[in-house]
Design a protein that fits this description.
8 helices
Length: about 200
């Protein structure tokens, strides 16, 4: 791998920062340099959260320019549309099929876009789009808070790091009482993305 530019986004409370931290740890363990920056807006109230990550043998800046992200991992689908222009042509979009309307929509000042509109925005950039029912899968596991690790499992399929490194990082960062369910969520995510047709 020469380089990898990643963006992870979603809403406050979805575990975006932990997910991006884990990616960074796995990349460092594999011998890569990484630069990362997080933007957190009203995170505790469900506001937008975004992590830029650039991974290579040597990295000088964390910021990804528009049209240069290899992979966009979105835990909320409006956030996928919001940052779609950062994907490079033919880049990979992995999107949790879940809506968490922002305050402007809740107040009636804006309209939440339809799935077709969101997909249309993404398709202007790439055809490599994976819509994942991540929230539903996490609920089926019995702990909705495993969503970020489930979606990380999906994204891990497109990164050249060994499964063992991912699991070591997850196990080291999470408390024992939730460690096994998150490792299971990671495995389920890896399998899920294989079965989802690229739309």
């Amino acid at each position: 791998m020469k380089s990898l530019n990643l963006m992870v986004t979603g809403a406050g409370g979805q575990g975006i920062i932990l997910a991006s931290d884990l990616i960074g740890e796995v990349a460092i363990a594999a011998g890569y340099d990484i630069k990362k920056t997080d933007t957190i807006g009203m995170a505790q109230r469900g506001g937008s959260v975004l992590s830029h990550m650039r991974i290579a043998r040597q990295v000088w800046s964390p910021l990804i320019r528009e049209g240069e992200a290899d992979l966009l991992l979105a835990l909320e689908k409006l956030e996928a549309a919001r940052w779609a222009n950062y994907l490079k042509p033919g880049g990979i979009a992995i999107v949790n099929n879940f809506a968490l309307p922002p305050l402007s929509v809740s107040l009636g000042n804006a309209r939440y876009p339809s799935d077709d509109e969101i997909k249309g925005i993404l398709k202007q950039v790439t055809d490599r789009i994976f819509f994942i029912d991540g929230t539903e899968r996490a609920r089926e596991l019995g702990n909705i808070r495993t969503l970020n690790i489930f979606m990380l499992g999906c994204a891990s399929r497109f990164m050249p790091f060994p499964v063992s490194a991912w699991k070591e990082s997850i196990a080291s960062r999470l408390p024992e009482k939730v460690r096994q369910i998150n490792l299971t969520a990671f495995d389920r995510g890896r399998k899920e993305v294989e079965s989802v047709h690229i739309r």
